[in-house]
Amino acid sequence: MATRRIISQEKTLLEKDDRIGSSPSASEKSNITPAVPASVIMKLLAFTFAMIVIPISSYFLTVDRLFKGNSTYAGATAAIMANVVLIGYIIVAMAEDQSDQENEKKGGGGKAEGKKDL
Questions:
Q1: What pTM was estimated for this model as a whole?
Q2: Among 2, 25, 86, 87, which residue is least crowded by beta carbons within 10 Å?
């Protein structure tokens, strides 16, 4: 025969502890720092703006003034300028990553800004 549960000793849903898995309890403050530092977001926005403005402006500036209406050469110039912006972003990202690695090697304890390791 099946045994019965003693309901009076069990906690109801409201009586159970706030802590479910790794979520903080009501008395603890949660970590609301952004996952990505603001400087990284600003660099991304600046390079996004440059990726839009520089190729388009280089096309329209060179199509009539430099190449005298030859849109093929002006388009090639715009493509080259887009690649220059992209390479610039890669160089900046690599330099930032190297500086983060150097800070960790020096014993800085991680990044000065950014997400806290849990």
A1: 0.61
A2: 2
